[in-house]
Design a protein that fits this description.
Elements lengths: L19 E7 L8 E8 L1 H7 L5 E6 L10 H12 L5 E6 L16 H15 L5 E6 L1 H12 L4 E7 L13 H7 L1 H10 L2 H7 L8 H8 L9 H8 L10 H11 L6 E5 L8 H10 L4 E4 L7 H4 L2 H14 L23 H5 L6 E5 L9 E4 H17 L7 E5 L4 H13 L2 E4 L5 H12 L3 E4 L1 H10 L4 E4 L5 H7 L1 E4 H8 L13 E6 L9 E5 H15 L7 E3 L8 H4 L3 E3 L12 H11 L3 E4 L1 H9 L6 H7 L4 E4 L6 H10 L4 E3 L2 E3 L2 E6 L2 H8 L6 E6 L4 E6 L18 E6 L6 E2 L3 H9 L15 H12 L11 E9 L5 E6 L4 E3 L2 E3 L2 H7 L5 E9 L6 E8 L7 E2 L2 H9 L7 E5 L14 H12 L8
Parallel strand pairs: 3-4, 3-5, 5-6, 6-7, 7-8, 9-19, 11-12, 11-13, 12-16, 13-14, 14-15, 18-19, 18-20, 20-21, 21-22, 34-36
Antiparallel strand pairs: 1-2, 2-4, 9-10, 16-17, 17-28, 23-24, 24-25, 25-30, 26-27, 27-29, 29-30, 31-32, 33-34, 35-36
């Protein structure tokens, strides 16, 4: 049935009528000889009225069963951006023929026909170049098909949840199989609006009724919905489908595109799962990728995608967006790469101990592995993994407790260029599942608990059991191989060519203590820089011996060429470490260096009375003690030093994104204690690291240009040779963390008084005088200041800053004041009330636990106020501050502030 095109009705929410227009084209392909009318949203005429010349055109193509209304926010925001002085892009959002408010015809439109149709439209519009194709759902295939066939016009490509290939061995998603099934097809797609309603129901959060009505407006009867039916029927599921050949052409062409690419993804999509994202990433390995956790199929409704897309388009316009074939600059000669497994090769015939695992042997005795055994085991696993099909760049998720087995697997993966994915079990089932699915591994190597979770939660990847399990369990868990079988396959086999320094090495997930866990990507060169910085800063030698109760460093012993021991503890739960376990580990490894996290130190100090005389003597032999992972207060450090009286104590500051940033020793802490500064002093930058501060403005936002000026409160910004490569599949998070520096561009800062120092540092780092703009930076999210001696003081997290009538306040300094009172165990200070007039409220955990939540009595409140210069509006005593944290610096003060406000308003609340 033929139906002419029309404009949408007035009043559709978010859609401005001024962008709507009709365009007539000449039919092509099977529609040759006809004249067809399209409806589209076009910002071109408005830009012309404003006197703004666009830098290019975004050609946006909707999928099934939506229409150009899907792109309304991009259309509106692009005009606002252009008016504010950003790069101006003309946005053309089409309604495909048979869809939206475009013409209905009697032609059955296949994928091939739709690509030809779109080409006819762009010819009619006279597009002459600098076009960015953008598509969603099956519109993504059409848009990419157009891109492949119009390379002379193409500048970049972007997609939201789409696919360009259907693996022959896998069926299409169940929902589409049902929709395509015989009589269901017509009944669900055209006879009724069921398919449309089901699609709209996928939005998260649910769409407002008015928005649902707007999406439904072009599809009010069967005749108007025939295009929906045709689209579903044309899905190229296999070779028997008419559009299969066209899809193959698109998929092959996409793999050859060398223009910048952006993939924005909603992982809750039941149709286009991460399987299809992985396929697109393999075809477009240079693409910037961002997974919006919580978003699904209707990603354009679920998340403010347009803001992120426009930020990327700024890079496209500037010519700084990543293209295929771009590589890191060639390293200077002094930065020669030494592989992480070099020490294993060097000690290949050494019978002395390389690694110990306390309390894991069958008889409870330490499990000891020599260098000779470890090197052989690493080779066997590496060659075996290669034999079962693991290739360079494949992702291997490791669900194995830290210890000798995990160490061997990690180095085997590094040796063959597989990318190790490490997520902490402390994330919980939900967090761990999100991390693993987000990384989308090719292989999972796990113990039974991890493999059980992988099976139950549908995690992807070939499954390998780290231990031998019964055949019935193997079948139930989908285990293809045991680690022993893999090693047997690799015994005596040749190893593949090793990876290079710029190849990806690892995805390490953050703890998730201050937000959703993020995958942090490291190259081999960056891991080597972590190793070298650790070795050079703390004088690690072959004779040092390490006790590592801190998970990120538990695997570095073999890389450092020294023996290491994993204490008898659950490394993913630092508070399980005891003083006796540390002492026993020191004895077993004859260790001189001890690494612990603040949470582990708390329990070690708390269990010190369990030590016997021999264990105390062993701790007295430690030369170096490091508290790593978060700033630590002087009182707790003093308690730890009392256990290791002859050790030089250090508290390096770092994070998963950059494991070592600054360092301070006990003498430095004593000197800092005499200063009037607020916060925890974490010392001066290590080696070639650089620290700057982006000052907070009156709203508490970090808007200042990076500076080394003393006494300025702001966000801590860092640069280091071992700074992460990027966040994994979180391109927009990376943009905010690394690229979006005040007054600067991609990885650079505006020129100011402090920036000459950056240039000097850049010269020493890279051997070139022009590397200032190429230095990579990272916004840490921590708040603090530098003092006159260049020491960094940490005062909290940026989201925990609140604004009082006197300006922004960071919480840690006041918390430290309160914790000087002998009856206060831990303190958290939060802001209650509107920004600009927020009041400081203390939430306290006392040494004598409170039996419930209560407001501090007048006498206690007076003592608290007398201990600090910061006015306190109130103080709440709680039995315990939140226990799902690792250390005080990672209390979720945002949630605690909301809780405190409810408590002070008279609402009956339970403990936080």
């Amino acid at each position: 049935m033929v139906r002419s095109a029309s404009r949408p009705p007035a009043g559709l929410p978010g859609l401005q009528e001024r962008f709507s227009r009709l365009v007539e084209t000449t039919g092509v392909g099977e529609d040759t000889g006809s004249s067809r009318t399209w409806h589209l949203l076009d910002t071109g005429p408005i830009l012309q009225e404003l006197g703004i010349e666009p830098v290019g055109t975004v050609l946006a193509v909707h999928g099934n069963p939506t229409w150009s209304y899907l792109w309304r926010s991009l259309v509106s925001e692009s005009i606002s951006a252009a008016e504010s002085g950003a790069a101006a892009w003309r946005v053309i959002a089409v309604d495909q023929l048979e869809m939206g408010f475009s013409e209905r015809t009697e032609v059955r439109r296949t994928l091939e026909q739709r690509i030809l149709d779109l080409g006819a439209l762009t010819d009619e519009l006279g597009l002459s170049g600098n076009v960015v194709s953008l598509g969603h759902d099956w519109g993504g295939v059409v848009a990419l098909g157009w891109a492949v066939r119009h390379p002379e016009l193409l500048t970049a490509v972007a997609s939201l949840n789409t696919a360009v290939d259907q693996p022959s061995e896998l069926p299409i998603p169940a929902a589409l199989r049902l929709a395509r099934f015989g009589p269901v097809l017509r009944a669900s797609t055209s006879t009724s609006p069921a398919f449309l309603a089901t699609t709209l129901a996928l939005a998260n959060p649910p769409l407002a009724p008015q928005v649902k009505a707007a999406y439904s407006a072009p599809y009010l009867d069967r005749a108007s919905r025939l295009g929906i039916e045709q689209f579903v029927a044309d899905i190229p599921v296999d070779e028997s489908t008419r559009s299969h050949e066209a899809l193959q052409g698109v998929s092959a062409g996409v793999a050859a595109l060398d223009v910048p690419a952006l993939l924005l993804w909603g992982p809750r999509d039941p149709i286009f799962t991460d399987l299809y994202l992985g396929d697109l990433m393999r075809r477009l390995p240079h693409a910037e990728v961002h997974r919006f956790e919580g978003a699904g199929h209707l990603i354009a409704e679920d998340t403010p995608y347009a803001t992120h897309l426009l930020a990327w388009l700024d890079d496209v316009a500037a010519g700084t967006a990543r293209r295929r074939g771009q590589h890191a600059p060639e390293p200077s000669p002094e930065d020669a790469s030494t592989p992480m497994w070099a020490a294993l090769d060097e000690h290949r015939d050494d019978p002395s101990i390389a690694a110990l695992e306390m309390g894991r042997g069958t008889d409870g005795a330490p499990l000891r592995v020599s260098w000779r055994q470890l090197a052989r085991r690493v080779d066997e696993i590496a060659a075996g993994l290669s034999a079962v099909g693991v290739r360079r760049g494949d992702r291997v998720s490791l669900l194995v407790q830290p210890g000798v087995t995990l160490t061997a697997i990690v180095y085997a993966c590094l040796r063959i260029g597989a990318v190790v994915v490490v997520a902490d079990a402390g994330l919980g089932v939900k967090g761990l599942s999100r991390a693993v699915r987000g990384a989308w591994p090719d292989v999972i190597i796990g113990q039974v608990p991890g493999l059980t979770a992988a099976k139950a939660l549908g995690w992807p990847g070939l499954r390998i059991s780290a231990t031998s399990i019964p055949a019935s369990a193997r079948a139930a868990l989908g285990v293809a191989h045991s680690l022993a079988e893999v090693a047997a396959l690799g015994r005596g086999a040749a190893l593949p060519t090793p990876p290079g320094p710029e190849d990806l090495a690892a995805v390490l997930f953050t703890s998730g203590s201050t937000g959703p866990a993020k995958g942090v990507v490291y190259t081999h060169r960056q891991l080597q820089a972590v190793r070298d910085t650790l070795r050079d800063t703390y004088g690690v030698t072959a004779e040092s011996g390490l006790v590592t109760g801190f998970a990120p460093f538990a695997l570095l012993g073999p890389a450092l060429g020294t023996r290491s021991v994993t204490p008898d503890m659950d490394v993913t739960s630092p508070r399980t470490l005891t003083a006796t376990a540390v002492a026993d580990a020191v004895v077993a490894a004859d260790a001189r260096i001890v690494f612990l996290s603040p949470a582990a130190i708390l329990n070690v100090v708390a269990t010190r009375d369990d030590l016997d005389a021999a264990q105390r003597e062993a701790l007295g032999s430690v030369d170096t003690f490091l508290s790593t992972g978060a700033p630590i207060g002087a009182r707790l450090l003093d308690d730890a030093c009392a256990l290791m009286p002859n050790a030089e104590a250090h508290t390096p500051y770092g994070m998963t994104e950059c494991l070592l940033v600054t360092d301070i020793d006990r003498e430095g802490i004593s000197a800092a204690a005499l200063a009037a500064d607020h916060g925890v002093c974490v010392g001066t930058p290590i080696g070639r690291n650089v620290v700057r501060i982006s000052a907070l403005d009156e709203t508490g936002a970090a808007t200042g240009a990076p500076s080394d000026q003393a006494g300025v409160l702001g966000e801590v910004i860092i640069s280091a040779p071992h700074l992460k490569e990027r966040y994994d599949r979180l391109a927009m998070t990376d943009r905010a963390a690394v690229r979006d520096l005040p007054g600067g561009g991609a990885g650079s800062a505006s020129r100011g008084p402090s920036d000459q120092a950056c240039s000097d540092d850049a010269r020493s780092d890279h051997g070139h005088p022009d590397h200032d703009d190429r230095r990579r930076w990272h916004r840490t999210g921590d708040v603090g200041h530098l003092d006159a001696e260049g020491r960094l003081w940490i005062e909290g997290r940026l989201p925990h800053v609140f604004v009082t009538v006197d300006g922004p306040l960071a919480p840690v300094g006041t918390e430290q004041d309160l914790e000087t009172l002998p009856w206060v165990r831990r303190a958290a200070v939060v802001g209650v009330g509107p920004a600009g007039t927020a009041q400081a409220v203390a939430v306290l955990e006392t040494r004598e636990p409170s039996r419930g939540v209560r407001v501090a009595e007048a006498e206690l409140a007076d003592a608290l106020r007398a201990s600090t210069t910061q006015p306190l509006a109130a103080a709440l005593i709680v039995p315990e501050l939140p226990t799902d944290i690792r250390h005080n610096s990672k209390i979720d003060r945002t949630a605690l502030a909301s809780w405190a406000e409810r408590a002070l308003s008279g609402e009956r609340v339970s403990a936080p």
